[in-house]
Amino acid sequence: MKEKILPKEQLPQILKTLLESYKVFAPIKKNGFYVFGEIETPDEIALNYLNSKIPPKEIFYPRTEVLFTFTKSPQGIDIQEAINPSESRVIFGIRPCDAKSFTLLDKFFSYGKFKDPYYQTRRENTLLIGLACVNPRSTCFCTSINGSPFGEEGLDILFVDLGDKYFVKSLNLKGDELLDQLPGLTPASEKDRFNMTELLKKVLASMTPEIPIENINTKLEQLFDEEVFWDQFSQKCIGCASCTFLCPTCTCFDVVDEETSSSGKRIRLWDTCQFPLFTLHGSGHNPRPTKRQRLRQRVMHKFSYYPKTLDEIGCVGCGRCIIVCPVNQDIREVFKALQET
Amino acid sequence: MTQMSNLKKVSNPYIPKLTTIQEIVSENKPVNDLKTFKLVFNNPDDFKEFDYIPGQFAELSYFGAGECPIGIASSPTEEGYLLFTVKRVGVVTTALHNSKEGTAIGIRGPFGNGWPIEDLIGHNVVIIGGGFAFSTLRSLTKYILAKRELFKKLIVIYGARNPNELCYKQDLAEWEKLDDLELHLTIDRPVDGWTKKVGFVPAITKEVAPDSTDAFAIVCGPPIMIKFTIPVLTELGFADERILLSLENRMKCGIGKCGHCCVGEKYVCIDGPVFTQAQLRSLPKEY
């Protein structure tokens, strides 16, 4: 654990040094909104962002990816696995909520008898450098889900914007080693530490008040069959599934084949429990035919099933599902309604 | 992350092994929407690694069309090949149905928990099936017959819409001759020349009234059949822990990652497909 100070004008130098040894992913502005993308020069970075529109999980778990390719010939079929060993990478400027989502995804893709080698291969050899939130949005609720705008979970290094300089904190051995290689850092003083603590207090005070979510899973189980409870939320849902596509902890996918006459590939792509087709049987039977059941599934999965199987809430409070919803569905309203029943 | 660095040694569960269709048998000519495929691994070592028990399933690939989960109809006691009975329903199953002997088929598996053989050993087994869902029950019946001394009484109740829709006609003919298997075949409505039972599976189960003492009931069939068979079994004294069912849900990966088949916190593909009626009582009815 090291605590350093970096004058802001030195940041390009830091990025330059990182670019010499790593592939660097950082917030960039693309088509009018912020996403995480690979940068080749320090000036591509767009640090004015509040958070990226699309969660950075797509770096490890892309929207579409080829699982394998195959060629057909008279001799038979030849399969070529499409996993490439990952180069050393750094994600710079990730928000604490998204960093926390990686700890959930790590657990999910590695738990049980079967591991997911595609996610794991991309994930290994990646260092995470976070950027604390000093301007949380009104839709942010990480503090309700055991998170913090200055949260450190999942990160190797945390940067905090103190105005004219960054407070830089390494959080583990890998972070220590990386800090040693970076230029322009000076030791943090007691005053810097104090300023950071004061800033955190200010940021926390600016956030929407915490919603108590204790016993939320017990309450959800009790209300599972209460149609009226779920209808108050599902009736306005239009089933667009943006909430799940832009969720940093959603992991569901579809698998399809594409082929030409002699070759093809098997592809997986993000899928969503919000679509009726997700569960439709070949017979025509559908276990979750209504919006009520599908909305309930999304809430139950994150706040009841996830804690049961992985011992953690499957949400990090980033608020993307609230921002993106075309009918202003707000998951926090579900928590509030749960507390009131 | 230390866990991850070992991963090169672990095989990729998304990559199918190659097999070849050796034989295709239509189970219900002339309707022809039910075919049993006999698959043989191209590499015999892959078959050795394919260590399965009755009740498990596999993901079959028709390259270019995609993958679908199908219950294994053969028994591990049948050496050298695997059997899968496939109903023609969607893109992949249609491609399978249109393929010929010699076609390359990918296979991933075995997946799922399978019938709890260890629990069944030393007990009476009542197998109740309807329609083409009989496939993993064929596997179990074959398995029990091959290791007959390990199990007590074996009763099989199997129903279909009409005689033509009963799968595995050759096996059924052989089973009818056996003294240590009590077979009850039934069809929904009377048909000329049919001398066996007529009636739906729940009614026939009630009529046969298998003794629940020291017994397990194993049920697989369409949802409507299951719905009406369970109360009959309960009435006969079968405890919920001794009524075993195999669930089906739409699924893609078979390894607990794609999320399609989940029922509550359980995944049909890794926690099932076999559940006891007692387990199902605590899960949402989302199957």
Report what the structure shows.
The complex is a heterodimer of chains A (341) and B (287). Chain A is of the alpha+beta class. Helix content of chain A is 33%, strand content 22%. The model of chain A has no long low-confidence stretch (mean pLDDT 94). Chain B is α/β, with parallel strands linked by helices. Helix content of chain B is 22%, strand content 29%. Chain B contains eight helices and 15 strands. Chain B starts with 16 loop residues before the first strand and ends in a 6-residue tail after the last helix. Residues 1-9 of chain B have low confidence and may be disordered. Classes of the chains: A alpha+beta (341), B alpha/beta (287).
Q: State the shape of chain B.
A: globular
Put simply, the count of helices of chain B is 8
CATH architecture classification name of the largest domain in chain B: 3-Layer(aba) Sandwich
- Give average pLDDT of chain A, whole number: 94
Overall, the morphology of chain A is globular
Largest sheet of chain B: 7 strands, mixed
Query: What is the CATH superfamily label of the largest domain in chain B?
Result: Nucleotide-binding domain of ferredoxin-NADP reductase (FNR) module
Specify the biggest β-sheet of chain A.
8 strands, mixed
Structural class of chain B: alpha/beta
% residues in beta strands of chain B: 25-35%
